[in-house]
Amino acid sequence: MSSWQLTSLVVLVVLAAVISGGGWLILRYSQARKQRFDERLLAAKRAAVEKAAMEKATAEQKLRAKSAAINRAAAERLAAKRLAAEQAAAERAAAERAAVEQAIAEWAAAEQAEAERIRHRRASEERREIEGGEERLRAVEDAIAEWVEAEREGNRLAATKTPGKPVERTYTRTEALHQQVRSVAELVEKEVHDLEFIKNRIEADVDFLPIEFRQTIEDWKAGKIFRRSTFDDLKLKFRYKAYSIEDGYEMLYLYNEWLSQQRQKLRVFIRLLGTEVDPLESIQAAIERAERAEQEKYLEMDVDVIFTLRDVRAILEKLIGMEAVLKELEAVCRKRSEQIIAPPWEARGSL
Questions:
Q1: 171: left (phi over 0), alpha (psi -120 to 50) or beta
Q2: Helix (H, G, I), strand (E, B) or coil at 247
Q3: Alpha-carbon distances of 184 from 12, 132, 258, rounded to whole Å
Q4: How many helices (H) and strands (E) does the chain have?
Q5: Cα dihedral sign for 160, 162, 163, 168?
């Protein structure tokens, strides 16, 4: 084989080797490129799936957020309506309470004005009473003296017209006066019982009202009574009920004036029994001074005067007892007024 042929063969071999190596490289490159393309395609699909999932989750989240926002808006609108209704109800209740409080304030002012008017009237009457005290004392003394003289004259005439009939015993001045004292004692005894009855009746109503209110509230909470009424309705009901309880203030003023008159009578009795009474001296001291003066007469002491003074003392003790009852009546009247103006079931008290 010639050198040229050998060279050609070597060249062919080299070319074949080069072509074979290039094909393998091209094949490997193609395979690697295809693998990279498949991986990019798979990654793109995975990314698309993840993106779709993410978009779906985002959409669902937005939907839930929108739904929650709608629900919140609906709840807020409902709460606003409820708040508006509650505010309207509170305003109505406040207006009603204000009207009631205004009525009560006007009533309290009217009652205060009436009390002031009565106090001024009583002060004027007391001034006139003091100014005319001596005249009344003399009038009572003269009336008793006239009664005694008339009694004596009647007995004397009766004895003159019936000479065959035994002469009836005539009353002495002290005995006639003792009868007047006994009449006053009977009157005072009756008034004591009447005043006690009035005071006890008002006091029972005033004390029972809070108890009745608490029992009513318990029954109301249990749904037994007044199911359509509110707590303020019940308070208003019992506040009006307190109006119907007799206040007793007029009786208080009348009895104070009556007691003053009875004390004046006792001073007249002591004076008619022979003891002058100083206007500034207490009746008790005047009685004790009159008893000592009569006892100092010894054998000339008039027992009827002593007994009459004892009855005067008994009347005075009853009048003092009535003054204590009047103080209790005043406390009851004040308590009744407080139940109307500021009842114990308000904020200062408890149910």
A1: beta
A2: coil
A3: 170, 21, 12
A4: 7, 0
A5: negative
Q: Which residue matches tokens 């209790």?
A: 328
Buried b vs exposed e over 334-344: b needs ≥16 C-beta within 10 Å?
eebbebbbebe
Low-confidence residues in the chain, pLDDT < 70: 1-6, 10-11, 14-15, 18, 20-23, 93, 96-97, 100-101, 103-112, 114-116, 119, 122-123, 125-171, 347-351
DSSP string, 102-164: HHHHHHHHHHHHHHHHHHHHHHHHHHHHHHTHHHHHHHHHHHHHHHHHHHHHHHHHHHHH-TT
Tokens of 316: 């005075």
Instruction: Say if residues 192 and 318 touch (Cβ distance below 8 Å).
Output: yes
Q: Which residue has the tokens 């119907």?
A: 244
Sequence-distant (≥ 6) Cβ neighbours of residue 308 within 8 angstroms: 174, 177, 178, 181, 269, 273
Q: Is the dihedral angle over the CA atoms 255, 257, 262, 266 positive or is it negative?
A: positive
Q: b/e string for 179-193 if b means 16 or more Cβ within 10 A?
A: bbbeebeeebeebee
CB-side neighbour CA atoms (13 Å) of 10: 7
pLDDT tens digit string along 155-179? Answer: 555 555 555 444 445 567 788 888 8
Structure tokens, 85: 């209704």
